[in-house]
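Key result, reporting period 2: structure in, sequence out.
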């Protein structure tokens, strides 16, 4: 399947700190390979121009499992699978952290043109609970025109 441009909205909420959350919007490239939705997009630092990409991100959605891979200033792979726990390393310019993601729920609503994803999880860094979190991801523009 041919790549096409999609619009991505990501909103993250750390329930221990605020219920407002932080929302970001991106433009990315989408392709579907077998049963997997693959979205590639870049994150940029606030106040920078588009030539200063901080992270190249890959979002892979398959069978109620979400993988987010970040490469750049932050390097990590995050796996979200309902009622499962995944371990990894969160590499930052300030040091590396042991990361544990305990996913409570993953809900994916798919239409012909969009994906709407809700993930509720608990994040621990260096074996201490850091936050109870929700990620809402909305991807629009999947339909080939």
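The corresponding designed sequence is given below.
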């Amino acid at each position: 399947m041919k790549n096409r441009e999609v619009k991505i909205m990501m909103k993250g909420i750390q329930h221990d700190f605020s219920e407002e959350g932080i929302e970001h919007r991106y433009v990315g490239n989408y392709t579907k390979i077998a049963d997997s939705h693959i979205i590639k997009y870049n994150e940029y630092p606030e106040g920078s121009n588009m030539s200063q990409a901080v992270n190249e991100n890959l979002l892979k959605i398959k069978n109620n499992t979400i993988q987010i891979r970040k490469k750049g200033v932050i390097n990590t792979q995050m796996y979200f699978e309902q009622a499962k726990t995944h371990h990894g390393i969160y590499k930052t310019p300030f040091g590396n952290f042991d990361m544990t993601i305990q996913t409570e729920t993953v809900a994916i609503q798919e239409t012909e043109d969009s994906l709407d994803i809700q993930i509720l999880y608990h994040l621990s860094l260096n074996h201490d609970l850091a936050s109870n979190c929700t990620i809402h991801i909305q991807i629009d523009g999947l339909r080939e025109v």
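The mean pLDDT is 91. Residues 109 and 116 are 5 Å apart (CA to CA). This case is discussed further under Risks and Mitigation.
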